Every structure is written in structure tokens, then in C-alpha cells.
């Protein structure tokens, strides 16, 4: 099975350490402040499938205000709009292998029920997975370029089957039926082996190969460990996977399909989180999660030696993809102080082309802040990593307020990537400490499992210790520190205001869980294969665990909240239901505490439309200026609710 590109889609960027003289020069000059409209005039680009003749790339961009599909010449030039949606975001999946038809995807305003669409040569767009309520995912192209593979839960909402669809008449046939919650993880190009995974907990999974000819189910791992399918060799003789068996971090293994011999291929001091071959097998791409950033190597698959890649100086390559003939490579490169641009590189001529300039030309990159990785000791001596953004204007004479930032998850990770919201806050004088509390991924499986059945307790104490670290910095006003987060981070915000009500001065809750019992009972059916794992980590709401889940759910303890709060929510969110935010707002308002509520009718789990991002981010900064900086802002209803309608 051929996949279109090898990028993991992670905006993971290398931070660059500037010399003290450079930092001092920035402090001694005026730092220009930018509006949220200027920050959101940055362009977000994604994807990068080469056309069959390598003349252009198919990409997604939000330059119109929402994501639409565009083409751009491989050697640079103007982008051409392929879709012009003004309501639902549409994303590029791939050019067809032998012609200029295009495979696209879209859901319903954030409901996560993705469908696949084909744009034909005449420009007509057709839904090729039209089943109502069914979610479809593109897996790749067949080796002979005559079929596409996709997963769908149209037969059973809880499980994803694998289908093979003709690219001529779009008729499809079922080639793997899942009746046991074994998640599809890959397939050999001869369609004889399916890689399947069974989730055991949020870290560990069993990995299997199903032999179609013999109907044998081969278990790859011997011990309980984190195992993940990566790729098959192009001759279908070897299966590659990552595992952390016997160690803290994942390393790359191979499994010989004939002899069943296992061999360690590559090990790093951090997680190898991805690996795959190019179309003809000439190159192998390795992704390493190196202290919250992507470290990418492209290896010659015969010698396993790295090839030379372009040098982007203070930026790093965040993802790569290759043309089918392996003559071209596309790359995204960026830094924590600049969004990732798209480049192409001719592997034969060594010519390099920059295709995008995504940073708004009105913004001077020198006014933005480069992230630094710091570590602090928590209450019990556990070392907690964090990513720190300090405003250029901050000093011991000019102390600034700060925010503790908590990532999503559980089990997510704050990365060294560009964030318009973080840079906007920092540009306006707020330090930000993105805490990777215990339970975060990327720092070994022991650290990852430290918060199991302990959410809202020790992980919250890590965030409190992050606040204490901030307060100890000479540039920070220790009396003005708040907390912000989305999803799990939103839960942590509410947990902080509820269970440690005097630690943080304000809270910013973006679509955060507030009632774990309801959230765990309302898991979408297409998460069935992960449901039991989530119950093992968080608790089973249908058992005595519900007692603890209620105890750690902020909704049942809103009377403890005393500090100002802003809540932002998407009405179409299938993960954290709108009722979670509705009820927490109502509960806190009963305390007479200032509460602002911003509801977007046309967003899901996260805000993707620029107009909504502008509204939400500007409301956050205005809230912080009023209640954390205590600036004199014109008074307004302290319990304001704003509904942003779909237009």
C-alpha cells in the first residue's frame, strides 16, 4: 500500500538559542505589538501531494479564512484555489496516481464525521463515501495505482473495516472486517498481510499480523508494551514496527515474514514515533520526538546512512514527503517563533525552492519569542519539563504577568512549535509556561503512566509547581499568574480553580471536560477500540470508579471557584459536549464570580475558522488584560455570554 506522504502532521519545531547579546539588543529596542488580526493573517499550510508529473503540489490552506484546497507549482509560483468553501473546511488528501484528479476530505463543521470526495478533471466534486453518519479515512493507493484504500465504520459504528475502491467507477469491496476492535494499522502492498493493533491501555497495545492466505493471526510482541505498526518493505519481506519493550522509549524493529526473525533496526535516546519507506523503497524516513520537537532523518534504505538535507539554520524540518518517482521531496520548516513554510527539494539537482511565506509580512520575526525548554522539580521531586516563552520586554524592573499553559489529552504534549495564540499573548506582555505535567507523552513510559487514575491530583500539583517556578523568576510578577488550557487542559484549568482556588488568579477554559462521568459515558462510537484503555487510565464510569470520577469533576464543586473565568466552546464538539461548558458556566456564576462565555455554533473540538479564532483569542486577551493585568478596560457585564453564529 502506497501512502501519499510521510509527514506526521505535527507542528514540532526546533528552538534556537540566541546569544545573550542578541536578547539584550531586543530588550533595548522597542517591541512592536501586533493585533490579533495581524497574527491571524499568518497562513496555515498542510499536506503536499505531488502530481503524477511532479509539476505541482496539492495542499490545504486557511488563507480564505477556513481551510480550502489549493495547488502550487513545484518550483514556486501562485497558488490556485481548487475549492472555495465559505462554511465547511475542506482538506487535501492526495492527487490521484496517474492523472490530475484529486482526493479531498471534509467533515460537518467539526463533527469529525469525515467523508472522502473526488474532484474530477472537469472540476466536479463528488462524495464517494456518502453514507450518513459514517466516518471514512483515506489509507493509501494500491501498488498498481488502480485502487484506493479507506477505512469506514458504515457497517458497524464502533469498528472500522477496510475497503478497496476502484478509481474508475468508485465501486468498493470489503477486504477486512473488524468485529473485535483490532484497529487497522497498515497493509502489505500485495494485500496479504494486515497489521492490526489491540489497545491494552493508553500506553500499551498488542500488535498482530493477519495472513489472508492462511488466515493465521500472528502476535508480534511477546511482552506487554507500546507497539505500533510503521511500514512493510517494498518487496513485502519485512514488517517494521516500533516498541518500547524492555525500555522507556520506542525503538524501531523489523520482523521477517518468512523466517519470523525479529531484529532491532534503530534506537535513539528519545521515542522513534514514526518510520516509513518512499514509494520505490529507496529512502526510509525516521521521526524522533526529541524533547518536544521533531528530529527527522532520511536514510538510504540500502546503507541505512542519513542523506544530506537542506540546512534551514535556526529552523528545523518538521515533516517531509516524496514524489512517487523519488526525485522530489517536499519539506515543512519552521521554528517556535515562525510558522512552518513549505519547500521543495530536487534530490537529483539539489535545487531548493521556497513555495510559501506564511508569516504575515507586517510582523517582524524579531518581535516574536523563541521558546526555551526548562525543567523544574515538582512537589515530590519528579522533574517536570516545560516550554517557556518570555516577553522581550520583561525584566526585573519590568515584571510581567504569566500564564501556565496545559496541553490537551490526557497524554498529550506541549511542543516547540509555533502558536499564534501563545505569540499573541507573549507579544502583549504575558509570559507563558507550557507545562508537560506527569502523564505527558514523549518523556518515557514511566512518566507517561504517572497520572493514571490520578487526574486532577498529582498532575495538577505539577501545574501548581510550574506556577511557583514562574513566581520565582525575577522577570515575573508572582501575584499575577493564571492558567489556560484546552480539552484536558481545559479540565486542568477548572480543576485548578476548583481544588486549588487560591493558587491561580484567573482561568481560561477552552472546551474543557468538567464532568468525567458524562464525558466517559458519551465517548463517540468510533472510539470503541480505545474506550477500555481510557477507562483504565481515567476510571470506568459504570463501576465504583464513578465515586472518584465525581470527586475529580469540577462541575460538582463549582462553589469552590473564586477567581475570574472565561469559557470558550464549540457547539458541534463530539468529544467535549457543549453541556459541559454550559453547566460549568452556570455553576460558577452562582458564586457571583466574573464569568465570560463564548460559544461558537459552527465549531467542533478546537476552532479552525479564522474569524472564530480572531474572536476567541481577542476575547482571551481582553479578559486577561482586565482581570490579570487589572488594566482599566471599559466595564461590561461580568457574566457575559456571546454566541457566535454560523455565517
TrEMBL record:
The keyword DNA repair does not apply. It comes from the Bacteria. Residues 96-354 form the Peptidase S9A N-terminal domain. Keywords: Hydrolase, Protease, Serine protease. Residues 418-630 form the Peptidase S9 prolyl oligopeptidase catalytic domain. One of its GO terms (molecular function) is serine-type endopeptidase activity. One of its GO terms (biological process) is proteolysis. Pfam families: Peptidase_S9, Peptidase_S9_N. This is Oligo-or or dipeptidase, peptidase S9 family protein. It comes from Psychroflexus gondwanensis ACAM 44. The lineage of its organism: Bacteria, Pseudomonadati, Bacteroidota, Flavobacteriia, Flavobacteriales.
Amino acid at each position: 500500500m502506497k501512502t501519499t506522504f510521510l509527514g506526521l502532521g505535527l507542528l514540532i519545531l526546533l528552538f534556537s538559542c540566541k546569544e545573550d547579546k542578541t536578547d539584550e539588543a531586543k530588550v533595548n529596542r522597542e517591541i512592536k505589538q501586533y493585533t490579533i488580526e495581524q497574527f491571524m493573517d499568518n497562513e496555515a499550510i498542510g499536506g503536499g501531494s505531488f502530481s503524477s508529473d511532479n509539476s505541482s503540489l496539492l495542499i490545504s490552506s486557511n488563507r480564505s479564512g477556513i481551510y480550502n484546497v489549493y495547488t502550487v507549482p513545484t518550483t514556486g509560483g501562485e497558488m490556485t484555489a481548487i475549492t472555495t468553501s465559505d462554511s465547511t473546511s475542506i482538506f487535501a488528501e492526495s492527487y490521484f496516481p496517474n492523472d490530475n484528479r484529486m482526493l479531498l476530505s471534509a467533515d460537518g463543521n467539526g463533527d469529525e464525521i469525515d467523508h472522502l470526495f473526488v474532484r474530477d478533471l472537469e472540476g466536479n466534486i463528488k462524495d464517494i463515501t456518502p453514507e450518513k453518519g459514517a466516518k471514512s479515512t483515506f489509507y493509501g493507493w494500491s501498488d498498481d495505482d488502480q485502487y484506493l484504500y479507506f477505512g469506514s465504520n458504515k457497517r458497524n459504528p464502533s469498528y472500522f473495516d477496510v475497503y478497496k475502491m476502484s478509481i474508475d467507477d468508485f465501486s468498493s469491496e470489503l477486504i477486512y472486517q473488524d468485529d473485535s476492535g483490532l484497529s487497522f494499522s497498515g497493509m502489505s502492498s500485495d494485500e496479504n498481510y494486515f497489521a492490526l493493533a489491540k489497545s491494552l491501555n493508553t500506553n500499551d497495545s498488542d500488535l498482530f499480523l493477519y495472513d489472508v492466505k492462511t488466515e493465521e493471526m500472528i502476535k508480534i510482541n511477546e511482552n506487554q508494551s507500546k507497539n505500533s505498526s510503521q511500514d512493510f518493505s517494498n518487496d513485502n519481506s519485512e514488517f517494521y514496527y516500533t516498541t518500547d519493550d524492555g525500555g522507556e522509549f520506542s525503538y524501531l524493529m523489523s520482523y521477517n515474514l518468512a523466517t519470523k526473525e525479529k531484529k532491532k533496526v534503530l534506537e535513539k535516546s528519545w521515542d522513534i514515533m514514526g518510520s516509513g519507506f518512499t514509494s520505490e523503497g529507496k529512502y526510509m524516513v525516521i521521526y524522533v520526538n526529541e524533547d518536544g520537537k521533531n528530529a527527522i532523518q532520511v536514510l538510504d534504505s540500502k546503507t541505512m546512512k542519513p542523506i544530506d538535507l537542506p540546512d534551514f539554520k535556526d529552523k528545523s524540518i518538521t515533516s517531509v514527503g516524496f514524489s512517487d518517482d523519488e526525485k522530489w521531496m517536499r519539506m515543512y520548516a519552521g521554528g517556535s517563533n515562525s510558522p512552518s513554510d513549505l519547500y521543495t527539494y530536487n534530490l537529483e539537482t539539489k535545487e531548493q525552492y521556497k513555495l510559501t511565506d506564511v508569516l504575515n509580512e507586517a510582523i517582524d520575526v524579531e518581535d516574536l519569542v523563541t521558546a526555551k525548554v526548562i525543567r523544574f522539580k515538582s512537589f515530590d521531586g519528579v522533574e517536570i519539563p516545560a516550554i517557556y516563552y518570555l516577553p522581550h520586554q520583561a525584566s526585573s524592573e519590568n515584571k510581567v504577568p504569566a500564564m501556565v499553559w496545559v496541553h490537551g489529552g490526557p497524554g498529550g504534549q506541549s511542543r516547540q512549535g509555533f502558536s499564534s495564540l501563545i505569540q499573541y499573548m507573549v507579544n502583549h506582555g504575558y509570559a507563558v509556561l507550557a507545562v508537560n505535567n506527569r502523564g505527558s507523552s514523549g518523556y518515557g513510559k514511566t512518566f507517561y503512566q504517572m497520572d493514571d487514575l490520578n487526574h486532577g491530583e498529582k498532575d495538577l500539583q505539577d501545574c501548581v509547581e510550574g506556577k511557583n517556578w514562574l513566581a520565582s523568576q525575577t522577570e515575573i510578577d508572582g501575584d499575577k499568574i493564571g492558567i489556560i488550557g484546552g480539552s484536558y487542559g481545559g479540565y486542568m484549568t477548572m480543576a485548578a480553580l476548583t481544588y486549588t482556588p487560591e493558587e491561580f488568579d484567573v482561568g481560561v477554559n477552552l472546551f474543557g471536560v468538567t464532568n468525567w462521568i458524562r464525558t466517559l459515558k458519551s465517548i463517540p462510537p468510533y472510539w470503541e477500540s480505545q474506550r477500555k484503555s481510557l477507562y483504565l487510565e481515567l476510571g470506568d464510569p459504570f463501576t465504583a470508579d464513578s465515586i472518584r470520577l465525581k470527586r475529580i469533576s469540577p462541575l460538582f464543586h463549582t462553589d469552590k471557584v473564586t477567581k475570574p473565568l472565561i469559557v470558550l466552546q464549540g457547539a458541534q464538539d463530539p468529544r467535549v459536549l457543549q453541556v459541559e461548558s454550559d453547566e460549568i458556566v452556570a455553576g460558577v456564576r452562582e458564586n457571583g464570580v466574573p464569568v465570560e462565555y463564548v460559544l461558537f455554533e459552527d465549531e467542533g473540538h478546537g476552532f479552525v475558522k479564522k474569524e472564530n479564532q480572531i474572536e476567541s483569542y481577542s476575547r482571551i486577551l481582553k479578559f486577561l488584560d482586565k482581570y490579570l493585568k487589572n488594566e482599566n478596560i471599559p466595564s461590561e457585564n461580568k457574566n457575559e455570554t456571546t454566541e457566535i453564529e454560523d455565517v
